[in-house]
Design a protein that fits this description.
CATH superfamily of the largest domain: Response regulator
Organism: hydrothermal vent metagenome
Strand order of the largest sheet: 2-1-3-4-5
Low-confidence stretches: none
Number of domains: 3
Keywords: DNA-binding, Repressor, Transcription, Transcription regulation
GO molecular function, one term: transcription cis-regulatory region binding
Oligomer: single chain
CATH architecture of the largest domain: 3-Layer(aba) Sandwich
Helix content: 40-55%
Protein name: Transcriptional regulator, LacI family
Radius of gyration: 25 Å
Mean pLDDT: 89
Strand content: 5-15%
Order of helices and strands: HHHHEHEHEHEEHEHEHEHEEHE
C-alpha cells in the first residue's frame, strides 16, 4: 500500500468497486447498509481521507460561503456569525467574512467572488444587492439564486430572508411603555435610508396611533446605530425643557450611549426617563441599569440562513417553513418603570 492510502486501497479492502466507494461517501441512501459498513470499515483501517481540493476542482465548487457584514465591530452580529459557522463547519464549508462598512462599491467588489469561483453562495447581513449582480445570478442559477439575507431584508423579496417582523417588534416595545402609563414617548431612530430603521419607526408610529397619542416630529431623534449617536441624542434631550418621559431606541448600543449621557447629566433612568432598546446584545443584561429591550434569536438567524443556503447549493427544494419570520421577545429589565 502506498504511503498515502487511496480510494483504490479502500475499494480493494472492502471488496467493492471504486464507484461504490464514491457512492457510499457521497450518496449514502443508494447503497446497502452492509456495503456502507464495509466501506466505512475499510476507510478506518486504511486511514484514507478525501482530497477535498481535487474534489472541489472537479465539481467546480469552492466549498466556501461569503458572509457580507456591515460594520463587523457591531456586537449585534456576533451570535449570527456563530450560528452560521456552526452549520457551515458541519458541512465542511469555509466561511469568508467581509466587513462592507456599508460601502456599496466594496460590496459589489466582493460579490464578484460568486462569479469567479471563490465562493459558492452568499449570506447578506445588509439590505443591498446590486441589480446587475442579481441579474447575473438569475441568469446562471435560475430561481435557485444562492443568496440569503439575514436580519435586514431587501426592499423587494428577491431572495430568501431570515429575520423578525421589525415593525411588530417595535410596536411591542412602545406598547410596553404605553402600558406603564407613558404618553410623551420619543424615538431614537437608526441609520437613515436603512429598511430596519424605517420599519422600527413605522412600528413606533403604529403603537402611538393605536393608543390615540398624537405624533410630533420633535419626538424623533436621528441616530445611526452607534453609541456616539445615542450620546448625541442624550445631549439634545438634556437641553429640552419639556423632556419625554420615555424613549424607544432602534438598537441597544444607542440606548446605552443615551442612558450614559442622561445619567451623567443628572437624570435618573428609569426614575426620570424610561428607556427601551432593541436587539438584546450581551451587554444589555449587565449594563447599569439592565436594559429593557427586544430580543432577537440571532444565533437561530445564522443557523437557519446557512441551512437554507446549503439546500439551495444542493439544489434541494426549500420548504415554505424555511422562510418563516422568527418571533421577537420583549425582555423587561430595570431601565423602564411606571410613569409617575
Amino acid at each position: 500500500m502506498a504511503d498515502r492510502p487511496t480510494i483504490l486501497d479502500v475499494a480493494d479492502l472492502a471488496g467493492v468497486s471504486i464507484a461504490t466507494v464514491s457512492r457510499a461517501l457521497h450518496s449514502r441512501d443508494i447503497v446497502s447498509d452492509k456495503t456502507y459498513k464495509a466501506v466505512m470499515s475499510a476507510i478506518a483501517k486504511t486511514g484514507y481521507t478525501q482530497n477535498t481540493a481535487a474534489q472541489n476542482l472537479r465539481q467546480r465548487r469552492a466549498n466556501a460561503v461569503l458572509v457580507l457584514v456591515p460594520y463587523i465591530s457591531n456586537t449585534y452580529f456576533s451570535e449570527i456569525l456563530s450560528g452560521i459557522e456552526q452549520v457551515a463547519s458541519s458541512a465542511n464549508l469555509t466561511v469568508l467574512i467581509v466587513d462592507t462598512e456599508r460601502d456599496h462599491q466594496r460590496t459589489e467588489e466582493f460579490f464578484k467572488y460568486l462569479s469567479n469561483g471563490r465562493a459558492d453562495g452568499a449570506l447578506l447581513l445588509e439590505g443591498y444587492l446590486p441589480g446587475h449582480v442579481f441579474a447575473q445570478m438569475q441568469k446562471t442559477h435560475g430561481a435557485n439564486i444562492p443568496i440569503v439575507t439575514i436580519s435586514e431584508a431587501l426592499r423587494a423579496p428577491l431572495v430568501p430572508h431570515v429575520g423578525i417582523d421589525n415593525c411588530a417588534a417595535a410596536e411591542l416595545a412602545v406598547n410596553h411603555l404605553i402600558g406603564l402609563g407613558h404618553h410623551h414617548i420619543a424615538h431614537l431612530s437608526g441609520l437613515e435610508g436603512i429598511i430596519l430603521s424605517e420599519l422600527r419607526l413605522k412600528g413606533y408610529h403604529k403603537a402611538m396611533d393605536n393608543a390615540g397619542i398624537a405624533r410630533h416630529e420633535r419626538q424623533i431623534f436621528s441616530g445611526d446605530f452607534t453609541i456616539m449617536s445615542g450620546e448625541n441624542a442624550g445631549r439634545q434631550i438634556l437641553m429640552l425643557k419639556d423632556r419625554p418621559s420615555a424613549i424607544f431606541c432602534a438598537n441597544d448600543e444607542m440606548a446605552m450611549g443615551l442612558i450614559s449621557t442622561l445619567v451623567n447629566g443628572g437624570l435618573g433612568v428609569p426614575r426620570d426617563i424610561s428607556v427601551v432598546g432593541f436587539d438584546d446584545i450581551h451587554f444589555s443584561r449587565t449594563f447599569i441599569p439592565a436594559l429593557t429591550t427586544i430580543r432577537q434569536p440571532r444565533a437561530q438567524f445564522g443557523k437557519q440562513a446557512a441551512k437554507i443556503l446549503l439546500s439551495i447549493l444542493k439544489k434541494n427544494p426549500i420548504a415554505a417553513s424555511d422562510y418563516k419570520s422568527f418571533k421577537a421577545e420583549l425582555v423587561v429589565r430595570q431601565s423602564t418603570a411606571p410613569m409617575k
